[in-house]
């Protein structure tokens, strides 16, 4: 066990939280944002689709998927920067839950 | 018995055999390495299992039909049910994984240091999972009813027996690999017809790219008929209803006990993030295809069925009319079936599509097997959630703490049978379309669990009295609004019963905050546990300081 400076630990938490706020903002924009402005957007056409319909049927879902993968990759990078070892995490959390 | 019946039946039987075989194989294996630490399902496969658990009869059978009938307004379901994974993966899953408990009520009870909160959460789990399984059973009724050419109600009864048997017998441990197989069956069954239809109608095997053309043509057809165009927004409800429904489905997804439990079984917080990402990719395959289904089916119905002579309808219409879910009546008596004279239930669009598009008996049988996989895998997960709440959170932790494992298992199995039978009786005369019933379950989850978990993970000041008041108020507001809107005609901004979760969640969050601040703050230990969730497993928060575990030990495999 080694003590970590408060500043470093806070830095980790802030880095992760900032990213999450950004992802959620983007996610809300492509779903709630587009619905709020559905009528004006319906005059724009994208690949035969009116834009509001395209975003609801495909655009928002694709954005969500990309955001989740970006989050997974970026979080791994942040972990690495702070010297977190994935293998170590596994052995620490093993046995803490039931295996379904 | 015709050829179709035999083919469908053989495919369903073969896939069932596969699931049971996998379950038996894994059960045998699981006993041998039960005590080996660190065994985790790789995130890709866990993603598929989450997908199968998640994609229910409502997604498989009901959603494309809902989009077809509602047009743009049906897309709230697509965005809501996928967007929920953002909230779940970003805000809850990794932290819940680090806290590490067996069930969601157990997390709530331990985090808030309150037995009452655990009991309320257990009861909420039962109510939510129960409502959800009514939707599953009425879905399997549609499939079985069509397959055996009996009324959907008789089909539901057969489904009850199947699901009770399936979840009480297997489904306790080692279920993950079965669900991986179920995912593969259901996604194959879902994609094949839509790819064939895309080829038939647009000459392009990629429905996701090509159905824009069909949307274009639908607009022209709608204009000729003088009806509201398919893509026009907010024809079925107000914009606020759309937004409220979308929020309800997102927050509900992040609060569904049987989905959250899946994130307890991954190895680390990192694996929880990756599982969420893979899960949405696999789920997205189906959700991106549903609107294509809707457009193609509507196009075929408008161009090939509407306009034909009433005595010369395609053969498939007769068998669906028998199930009571399709009505084709020549109301104006001119001998020709008009588009307006077709009344099609949301719930049969997907199942009828292979017949509508004339795709042959094998594809029809595959659809039946896929729909059964969707209904069974979700029902299995729901029943386990119900039985865990009853046997673990209520019976074992509150009523009889000395109960033997055997006795708890018995209580668990009987609760599954009982819950399935009661849900089946309600599903005989379903109080709404499948997607609508399921939306109520989500409204209840977003009014109870979502606020409790969100504040529990992110706000250390939130305490026992706060969460108890929050869950009670959230559930009451949600239930009250559903009944007031559905039976009393009471609405705010045009938000109907399916959007009730937005009020429930807001009320629950407010109540939790106000009551928490008005009562004593949680113990220092409880607050430190919440701060500890900010960091990965290797970092621990204790006495205001963060510690990093940098020892080079080998995992203790004997514990």
TrEMBL record, chain A:
<dbReference type="Pfam" id="PF13937">
    <property type="entry name" value="DUF4212"/>
</dbReference>
<keyword id="KW-0472">Membrane</keyword>
<keyword id="KW-1133">Transmembrane helix</keyword>
<feature type="transmembrane region" description="Helical">
    <location>
        <begin position="20"/>
        <end position="38"/>
    </location>
</feature>
<protein>
    <submittedName>
        <fullName>Membrane protein</fullName>
    </submittedName>
</protein>
<dbReference type="InterPro" id="IPR019886">
    <property type="entry name" value="Na_symporter_ssu"/>
</dbReference>
<feature type="domain" description="Sodium symporter small subunit">
    <location>
        <begin position="10"/>
        <end position="85"/>
    </location>
</feature>
<feature type="transmembrane region" description="Helical">
    <location>
        <begin position="53"/>
        <end position="74"/>
    </location>
</feature>
<keyword id="KW-0812">Transmembrane</keyword>
TrEMBL record, chain B:
<keyword id="KW-0812">Transmembrane</keyword>
<dbReference type="InterPro" id="IPR050277">
    <property type="entry name" value="Sodium:Solute_Symporter"/>
</dbReference>
<feature type="transmembrane region" description="Helical">
    <location>
        <begin position="147"/>
        <end position="168"/>
    </location>
</feature>
<feature type="transmembrane region" description="Helical">
    <location>
        <begin position="45"/>
        <end position="69"/>
    </location>
</feature>
<dbReference type="InterPro" id="IPR019899">
    <property type="entry name" value="Na/solute_symporter_VC_2705"/>
</dbReference>
<dbReference type="InterPro" id="IPR038377">
    <property type="entry name" value="Na/Glc_symporter_sf"/>
</dbReference>
<feature type="transmembrane region" description="Helical">
    <location>
        <begin position="434"/>
        <end position="459"/>
    </location>
</feature>
<feature type="transmembrane region" description="Helical">
    <location>
        <begin position="117"/>
        <end position="135"/>
    </location>
</feature>
<keyword id="KW-1133">Transmembrane helix</keyword>
<feature type="transmembrane region" description="Helical">
    <location>
        <begin position="410"/>
        <end position="428"/>
    </location>
</feature>
<protein>
    <submittedName>
        <fullName>Cation acetate symporter</fullName>
    </submittedName>
</protein>
<dbReference type="InterPro" id="IPR001734">
    <property type="entry name" value="Na/solute_symporter"/>
</dbReference>
<comment type="similarity">
    <text>Belongs to the sodium:solute symporter (SSF) (TC 2.A.21) family.</text>
</comment>
<feature type="transmembrane region" description="Helical">
    <location>
        <begin position="466"/>
        <end position="484"/>
    </location>
</feature>
<keyword id="KW-0472">Membrane</keyword>
<dbReference type="Pfam" id="PF00474">
    <property type="entry name" value="SSF"/>
</dbReference>
<feature type="transmembrane region" description="Helical">
    <location>
        <begin position="6"/>
        <end position="25"/>
    </location>
</feature>
<feature type="transmembrane region" description="Helical">
    <location>
        <begin position="276"/>
        <end position="296"/>
    </location>
</feature>
<feature type="transmembrane region" description="Helical">
    <location>
        <begin position="180"/>
        <end position="201"/>
    </location>
</feature>
<feature type="transmembrane region" description="Helical">
    <location>
        <begin position="240"/>
        <end position="264"/>
    </location>
</feature>
<dbReference type="InterPro" id="IPR018247">
    <property type="entry name" value="EF_Hand_1_Ca_BS"/>
</dbReference>
<keyword id="KW-0813">Transport</keyword>
């Amino acid at each position: 066990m080694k003590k970590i400076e408060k500043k470093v630990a806070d830095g980790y938490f802030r880095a992760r939280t900032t990213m999450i706020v950004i992802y959620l903002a983007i996610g809300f924009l492509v779903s709630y944002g587009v619905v709020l402005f559905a009528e004006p957007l319906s005059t724009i056409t994208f690949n035969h689709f009116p834009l509001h319909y395209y975003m609801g049927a495909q655009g928002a879902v694709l954005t969500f998927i990309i955001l989740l993968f970006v989050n997974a990759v970026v979080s791994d990078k942040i972990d690495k920067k702070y010297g977190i070892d994935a293998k170590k995490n596994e052995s620490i959390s093993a046995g803490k839950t039931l295996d379904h | 018995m015709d050829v179709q019946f035999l083919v469908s039946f053989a495919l369903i039987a073969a896939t069932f055999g596969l699931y049971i075989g996998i379950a038996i194989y894994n059960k045998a294996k699981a006993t041998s390495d039960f005590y080996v630490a660190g065994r985790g399902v790789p995130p890709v496969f866990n993603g598929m299992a989450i997908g199968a658990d998640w994609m229910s009869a409502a997604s498989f059978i009901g959603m494309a039909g809902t989009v077809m009938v509602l047009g743009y307004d049906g897309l709230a379901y697509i965005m809501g049910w996928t967007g929920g994974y953002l909230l779940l993966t970003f805000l809850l899953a990794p932290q819940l994984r680090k806290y590490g408990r067996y069930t969601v009520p157990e997390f709530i009870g331990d985090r808030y240091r309150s037995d009452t909160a655990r009991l309320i959460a257990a009861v909420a789990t039962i109510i939510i999972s129960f409502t959800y399984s009514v939707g599953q059973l009425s879905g399997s009724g549609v499939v079985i009813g069509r397959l055996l050419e009996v009324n959907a109600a008789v089909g539901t009864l057969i489904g009850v027996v199947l699901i009770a048997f399936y979840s009480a017998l297997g489904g306790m441990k080692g279920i993950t690999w079965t669900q991986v197989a179920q995912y593969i069956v259901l996604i194959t069954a879902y994609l094949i017809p839509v790819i064939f239809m895309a080829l038939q109608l647009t000459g392009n095997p990629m429905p996701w790219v090509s159905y824009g053309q069909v949307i274009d043509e639908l607009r022209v057809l709608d204009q000729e008929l003088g009806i509201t165009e398919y893509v026009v927004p907010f024809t079925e409800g107000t914009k606020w209803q759309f937004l409220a429904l979308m929020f309800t489905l997102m927050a509900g997804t992040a609060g569904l006990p049987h989905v959250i439990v899946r994130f307890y079984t991954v190895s680390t917080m990192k694996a929880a993030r990756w599982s969420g990402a893979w899960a949405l990719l696999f789920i997205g395959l189906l959700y991106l295809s549903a609107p294509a289904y809707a457009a193609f089916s509507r196009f075929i119905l408008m161009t090939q069925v509407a306009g034909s002579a009433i005595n010369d309808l395609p053969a498939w219409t007769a068998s669906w009319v028998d199930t009571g879910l399709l009505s084709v009546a020549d109301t104006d008596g001119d001998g020709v079936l008009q588009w307006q004279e077709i009344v099609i239930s949301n719930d049969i669009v997907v199942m009828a599509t292979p017949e509508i598009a004339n795709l042959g008996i094998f594809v029809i049988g595959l659809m039946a097997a896929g729909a059964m996989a969707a209904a069974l895998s979700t029902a299995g997960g729901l029943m386990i959630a119900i039985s865990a709440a009853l046997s673990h959170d209520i019976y074992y932790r509150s009523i009889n703490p000395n109960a033997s494992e055997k006795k708890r298992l018995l209580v668990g199995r009987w609760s599954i049978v009982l819950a399935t039978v009661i849900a089946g009786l309600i599903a005989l005369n379903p109080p709404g379309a499948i997607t609508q019933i399921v939306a109520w379950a989500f409204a209840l989850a977003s009014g109870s669990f979502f606020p409790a978990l969100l504040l529990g993970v992110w706000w250390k000041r939130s305490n026992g009295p706060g969460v108890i008041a929050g869950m009670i108020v959230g559930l009451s507001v949600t239930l009250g609004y559903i009944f007031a809107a559905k039976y009393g005609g009471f609405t705010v901004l045009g938000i109907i019963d399916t959007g009730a979760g937005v009020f429930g969640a807001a009320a629950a969050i407010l109540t939790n905050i106000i009551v928490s601040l008005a009562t004593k703050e949680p113990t220092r230990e409880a607050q430190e546990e919440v701060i500890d969730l900010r960091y990965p497993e290797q970092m621990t928060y204790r006495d205001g300081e963060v510690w990093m575990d940098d020892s080079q030990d080998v995992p203790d495999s004997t514990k």
